[in-house]
Amino acid sequence: MDNASGSTATGTQAVARAAALLKLVSLRDAATDGAATRTSDLARRSGLTRPTTYRLLSALRDEGLVDQDAATRAWVAGPELYLMGMAAAPRYDVVEIARDIVRSLAVRTEESAFLSVRRGDETVCVLREDGSFPIRSFVLSEGVRFPLGVASAGLAILSFLPPHDVDAYFARHPELPERWGVAHAESRIRDRIEETTSRGFALNAGLIVEGSYGLGAAVFSGAGEPQWALSLTGVQFRFSPARMPELGRTLLAHAHQLSQRLANARRDVNPLERARAAR
Fold it and tell me: Where is the HTH iclR-type domain (predicted)?
């Protein structure tokens, strides 16, 4: 939290604060749908005072990393972030690797299908493909982030983390039931983790938006770490007990296919990249 005087932090603390503000500006938050991007909103969400928030945002604006809309005073991502993203994409972008698999999942199930990536204690949706069924859920779309364990993608990832990592996650986030409702208390999420590891895929039965169901399956790195997730969302009657096993099998098959493809892609990294990674 910011201190009472609102003095600007130095060194690593200032970098961490600036990075936190960049994430808030550039990635839509599912709880606000991207609306809270004014200085006062960003200060509240980051835990900083308003003067400190404004100073950091102004410094980021001077470097082209953020910009401010003249009419709304909302902060938006700046041009330098776009250029940085282009430079990083060849190394980290899994969207093109996964696109046809996500599209196949949407075609096979007729539901909306998604790819999400783990970023720290959250998942961020990076790809959406809509199926042919005309009634859809719009809880999730590109750029929306959720804490692990809240949406089906994050629950699938959390469920397959080592137990000590799960314990540490809950220790860091006692606020989950206050922000997301009592259904997201630690004991309730742990029950769903046990169910997820038993059946292989996660189920969110209308816990974010009533009547909107989600299934999630973890996608693993070559080292066996759950770094991504495939998920399906739709209206409740489309996720009936009779249809759930079929949806789960289809989801798991696509997640397994993507895990294998990503592992193979990593093995195909050129020798220069392999040497860099070994340093």
Answer: 12-79
